[in-house]
Amino acid sequence: MEATNHLPVDSPNTGSLPTVDVARKLGLLPDEYDRICDILGRKPNFTELSIFSVMWSEHCSYKNSIVWLKTLPRDSERMLAKAGEENAGLVDIGDGLACSFKIESHNHPSALEPYQGAATGVGGINRDIFTMGARPIAQLNSLRFGNIDLPKTKRLLRGVVKGIGDYGNAFGIPTVGGEIYFDDCYNTNPLVNAFSAGIVEVGKVAKATSHGVGNPVFIVGSATGKDGIHGATFASEDISEKSTEKLPAVQVGDPFMEKLLLEATLEIIASGHVIGIQDMGAAGIICSTSEMSAKEGFGMDVNLDLVPTRQANMQPFEILLSESQERMLVVVQKGKEDVIQQIFDKWDLHCAQIGTVTDTGRLHFYRWGQLVADVPAHDLVLGGGAPQYHREYREPAYISEFAKFDINTVADVTAGELKTVAEHLLSHPNICSRKWVYEQYDSMVGTANRSTNAPSDAAVVRVKGAGLPQTDKSIVITVDCNSRYVNANPNTGAQIAVAEAARNIVCTGGEPLAVTNNLNFGNPYVPEVYWHFVEAVKGMGAACSRFETPVTGGNVSFYNQSSDDGPVFPTPTIGMLGLMENPDNRMTLNFGQAGDAIYLIGSTKDDIASSEYLYSFRGVKASPAPAFDIEEEVAVQAAVKQVIKDKLVVSAHDLSDGGLFIALAESAMAGNVGFSIKTDAGLRTDAFLFGENQSRVVVSVSAGQQAAFEAALSASGVAFSQLGEVTSGDFVIDGTTLMTVADAKAAYDNALGTKMS
Amino acid sequence: MKFGVVVFPGSNCDQDAVDALTLMDQEVVKLWHKDHDLQGCDFIILPGGFSYGDYLRTGAVARFSPIMNEVIAHANRGGYLMGICNGFQILAEARLVPGVLLRNTSQKYVCKNIYLKPESKDALLTAGLEKSAYKIPVAHGDGRYFADADTLKQLNDHEQVLFRYCDEFGNVTDEANPNGSLDNIAGVCNAAKNVFGMMPHPERAADIALGNTDGRLILEQLLKAVLV
Question: How far is A264 from A279, CA to CA, in rounded Å?
């Protein structure tokens, strides 16, 4: 082979080729080092070893997760790109349009440098969307932090929220929803998962590919600096005291650059001269050159001297691995270089040809006139030569302990306790208003957010943007995961996460279409942690199959654990895309007027397992996941869909954290009204009001529609019951006024702001 | 009447302004910041966003954009010019309206619906507005209006204050002030009353599909006044 004719020079100039010890320091196993030697037919030099270390890191290769990810359902009639095939999932939404959407984590950088960590997470996920030619129209985020009373948590929360805000606000795409939870298990390892969705015309989608010998390869956007080198490797280790020494592994974001890159990228794609394009995220140039080349079996010759850099004398491995933000790799039709150049000149962005496409299937990188690395593209990438492991897994001992929970060991709430529990839950950081967070995000730019003046369980965003054809459709999007449930039972908990996401979309008047997932777990080499992962993937797969919402892609984040705190709760966050064909099908969660009847669709069980009430008010940490039956869930969602479609309900709101009471309170506060309900003598009061058994929805119905509503529910066969009615402002339970809507708002609205001030 | 919306690098509310005016059947074009041609527009809008990233002071770089020469000349000739949010910040930096915009007192970006009380009795933007309070979104980190005592007196004496932040009933209170603006000032005009600047975004409340059309009422008043 060519490589044996002239070995790449070594660099940095260590004088000799790196040993297996160096490989280990770069995060490679001895077996992997041997495999690299086999692939190359010789020992790798330092640059090549660095290349393999990042490309075979968990972050890029999914080596410890892919065998299980492949079990997830990935197909439906609406899928235009298979999971992992492109930068993000692509779903047909009709009218010649497709929605590209994805969620991605930036947990490890955010743990060290919350502001830049979160900001660059937002930047990265949006680039995944617009490299496909889709204009982003909405963002969500899913956040997990430790105990909110710790100063460190407040610092992280402030930094992350400001990072997301400053980046997203300047980039100019609205942040329209999200979720945030606090638990001690996230004290060292916060989770920052960012979601973006964009719209592209079918047939105008850009691909992450490369072909055509002699076609020029461009790097565009920011100059390349020394930030984020080995970031992908860093994200594939436990967080430790030494992690702060890796601060340069955290990248720095520039939303202004990203905005220019967005506009320029969409323009070059529209020009029709782009063969392939991929953003540079984890593992920078080496990742995009290898993945694009491997796609169709081509190669590239790249001269690293031509890469615009931020500092002189960068080593080859530094240029190749840099995770400097706001960059793209573009393969262009030969002869059309000028067209591309003019567009980037217009936007005052770097655009440099750094190489050409070859038919060798190999990547040749040159620096200072010499070949510095010669590696086969195929062997670097997922689905090619990157390793895939079956890891050992074992059920943790605590699972069977949790399952032994006996509700009778917990005293039911007394009448005198009700108000205390109500206030505890309303003001609890996991339940109270997220206003302190979301008011720091521009939620309205783009004039497409239909949720600003109409609250609902999922966000509704009009399909609208510069250059897109007119349509009445909206996307309906949500992110969901109650990780306490997943910790108690990963299989059931993951099913619940999918079910809740679908329920939120259904309660908003949308049709669930597809899923992107962000799988946040601890160290995969710990069998108990890997068991979490395996069980969660199984549960997620089962639920996604049943709801016919295939997984279009996403992100795996392992190593969310520390030497002090152990692993975080397994947190397989579900980002779900739904569609609202007809704007009139929009449903909101706010109660209408006093006198409207309040119903519960679904059945309440004597269950307080894993509820916020049990966990934080009663202090019982060990209990199984709440009751859940997927067939019951499907039936409830079908019934809710029907009554919304038939315009039989005024409001719909699903029950989740805090149970029935919180759902009622949220619907009442949003409508500035109250409610009067009766509890069920056959159930414990705490289970009835605060239990979190799944598959339940609170709806309100105007007096004139009650008969039709009851007839429709009876015909559906789904359990339902009238709870009471909407009042002008008092929260009344069994004839006793607990509080007023104003009292509830006082507890709910500013609880988070007060904690943070 | 032909509207022109200037697009600076980093503008992100330009399309929203175009959409709102298009909804109201107006002719509207985008004007590129590197050009020197206003394309015969009668009414220029500087939209919201983060022009040039706003890494220096907000609006401080955009005022030197090539097209600003023509925009300033247009305003000095008495042509209509309106700056919304970042556009207002650019107007202030260019000294086309009095006062400055400082970091919000909360030190935080804020995006939410607020209420505006129309103030000036004779400015084109507000003279015919009848509601006591208009629900309009704000979205900014640097929206705290400030001016020295002499300037403030001039603004008040000459009906140059366009809007003040108020509660939903039209009461101008501290609680209703989202950013610490002096005397709750949300928008002002120049002495000649052809240049308007405001932090809130009427263009974000112009479409019935978003459930709030108070912004459209303000823009309709403007159209009524300038189309005479």
Answer: 13
pLDDT higher at A543 or A238: A543
Mean pLDDT, range B139-155, rounded to an integer: 98
Comparing CB atoms, the residue among B139, B209, B210 nearest residue A445 is B139
B140 belongs to the catalytic site: no
Nearest to A718 by CA among A631, A654, A636: A636
Shortest distance, CA A14 to any CA of chain B (angstroms): 41
Read off the amino acid at residue A543. A
Give the model's pLDDT for residue A237. Answer: 64
A443-454 burial: b if 16+ Cβ within 10 Å, else e: bbbbbbbbbbeb
Active site residue A59: yes
How near does any CA of chain A get to the CA of B109, in Å? 5
Answer yes or no: do B50 and A260 touch at CB < 8 A.
no
A695 Cα distance to chain centroid: 23
- Cα–Cα distance measured from residue A150 to residue A153, given in angstroms and rounded to the nearest whole number: 5
CB contact under 8 A, B109 and A169: yes
Give A-chain residues touching B49 at CB under 8 angstroms: 170, 172
| Residue from B109, B135, B201 whose CB has the most chain A CBs within 10 Å, to mutate | B109
> Does A447 sit within 8 Å of B204, measured CB to CB?
yes
Element (H or E) spanning A50, and its range? helix A46-55
Q: What percent of chain A has pLDDT over 90?
A: 86
Give the model confidence (pLDDT) of B38-77 as tens digits. Answer: 999 999 999 999 999 998 899 999 999 999 999 999 999 9
Query: What residue type is A78 in one-letter code?
Result: R
Query: Parallel, antiparallel, or unpaired: how do β-strands A697-701 and A597-601 relate?
Result: antiparallel
**CA distances to A161, A534, A663 from A121, in Å:** 12, 26, 32
Q: What is the pLDDT of residues A508-564, one digit of tens each?
A: 999 999 999 999 999 999 999 999 999 999 999 999 999 999 999 999 999 999 887
- Whether the pLDDT of residue A4 is over 50: the answer is no
**Domains assigned to chain B:** 2-226 (3.40.50.880)
Radius of gyration of chain B from its Cα atoms, rounded to whole angstroms: 16
Our CA-based measurement puts residue B150 at a distance from the nearest CA of chain A, in whole angstroms, of 34
The shortest CB-CB distance from B109 to any of A256, A346, A440 is to A440
Task: Confirm if A310 and A227 have CB atoms less than 8 A apart.
Answer: no
Residue of A6, A106, A108, A378 with catalytic role: A106
Helices (H), A172-313: 231-234, 255-271, 284-296
Q: Which residues of A touch B50 (CB under 8 A)?
A: 169-170, 172, 255-256, 259
Contacts of B54 in chain A (CB under 8 A): 170, 256
Distance CA A571, CA A536 (A): 9
Q: Which residues of B touch A346 (CB under 8 A)?
A: 34
Residue type, A23: A
User: Which amino acid belongs to residue A368?
Assistant: W
Prediction ipTM score? 0.97
Q: Which of A462, A503, A427 is nearest to A176 (CA)?
A: A462
Task: Give phi and psi for A631, each to the nearest 5.
Answer: -70, -40
Listed residue (A518, A618, A521) closest to A573, CA to CA? A518
Tell me how far apart the alpha carbons of residues A515 and A517 are, in angstroms, rounded to a whole number.
Answer: 6
Query: Cα distance from A445 to chain B (closest Cα, Å)?
Result: 7
**C-alpha span between A588 and A458 (Å, rounded):** 9
d(CA A147, CA A665): 25
The reply to whether omega before A308 is within 30° of 0 (cis) is no
- Work out the number of other CB atoms within 10 angstroms of the CB of residue A335: 11
Do strands A135-145 and A97-105 pair parallel, antiparallel, or not at all (unpaired)? unpaired
